Amino acid sequence: MRPRFVLFGDSITQQSFQSGGWGAALTDRYARKADVVLRGYSGYNTRWALYLLAKIFPQGSQEAPAVVTIFFGANDAAPLDGKHAMQHVPLPEYKENLSKIISHIKFLSKETLVVLITPPPVCEEALQVTGWKIFGLKPDDASVRKNETTGSYAKACIDVAKQADVPVIDLWTCMQEKPGWQRSYLSDGLHLSEDGNAVVFTKLIEILNENGFSFEAMKWDFPEHSNVNSQNPAETAW
């Protein structure tokens, strides 16, 4: 059986299998070597994610995933005074929830590689335009996510990763290192563009390579076609 890579997160994960998405790129990269499983839930925060754990990662499962990415925080950081107030999770609870998710997965198998991903930065101006287009709000009246607040959640995510001794991708910081990141890395002020998806893919590949999950280090699930006994496939050497 191929090892499983489970992508667990919110809409940024759910959309990762779209054209140019980081999940789609990961699936292509590990074709015939790993099954990449999408478990992204648009609009979800870490509080709601906790109630999915037993369904997605059931105890007693004979085969734990080899890799799990945990990519929440964009919705947890939503302001309390806006259209998305129901998604808000206080910072201390966000950290606790992330720790619980990691503990649940590690309880199933200490061998599972857990990778945290911080929320990316947000472009407040673009989100105001998005609020006007989707909700009919005037840009000046739209209460949107704040990049500074999102940065606090990104830092909290990094702190949890250090405490749990798991790798983390600090998207919030690395994306803002490029001038013009607001347009090059984000499609609507919150979600990722194709270039933004490429950043996630590149950073994730670096972590996988460092932890024994490089494409080259992993085995094919069945022999390559050039090694198949063409006359009697059942006698192919494994």
UniProtKB/TrEMBL annotation:
In terms of InterPro entries, this protein maps to: Iah1-like, SGNH_hydro, SGNH_hydro_sf
One Gene Ontology molecular-function label? hydrolase activity
Keyword Hydrolase among UniProt keywords: yes
Matches recorded under Pfam families: Lipase_GDSL_2
CDD domains associated with the record: Isoamyl_acetate_hydrolase_like (cd01838)
According to the entry, every stretch annotated as the SGNH hydrolase-type esterase domain falls at: 7-198
Keyword line? Hydrolase
What PANTHER family is this protein classified in? Answer: ISOAMYL ACETATE-HYDROLYZING ESTERASE 1, ISOAMYL ACETATE-HYDROLYZING ESTERASE 1 HOMOLOG
**Family assignment?**
Belongs to the 'GDSL' lipolytic enzyme family.
Q: What is this protein called?
A: SGNH hydrolase-type esterase domain-containing protein
